[in-house]
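Batch job 17 of 40 flagged for manual review because the log was empty.
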Amino acid sequence: MNAAPRPDRQTSLLTDRVGAETFAQHTISTIQDLTQILSDETDLLRDAKYKEAMALSERKADLVNSYARAMTTLGMERRSMQTLAPDSLDLVLTAHRALSAAAETNLPVVERARDTSRRVIDGITDIARRKASGPATYSADGAGAQQNRKNLPLALNSSF
């Protein structure tokens, strides 16, 4: 098996200014796109547009993966970036701070939406359970009346 050689920690992936700036531009673009997705998701969830917010999930997951790869590379290549393209590194870090602020705003909104959904699902489950158990009636001898067997509990998928 001939595997492609993997760069060790001593070998830099960014060898010139153009490569460093290109990497920075791509990273900044990814960060800005992710920041915008978080902002859009926050707005949709605040407006209780859960279906529209969920539609952003796949794109958001792709951007998160790209962001994680870029940040891993940046961590390994920080010295190269500082040497080859310090201004571009500063722009990446500025974009990263904007993303952090958007994530800080987004997280409580997502948690609130999740909690609201959980309460709605729990409420529906309680109503279904009460309805399935039937009225609290007693027979002539004071024993509980037989429940109707066709009223089975309702199963709900509670994933959000």
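Reviewer: the log was empty due to a logging misconfiguration, but the result itself is present. Residues 82 and 90 are 9 Å apart (CA to CA). Unflagging and moving on to job 18.
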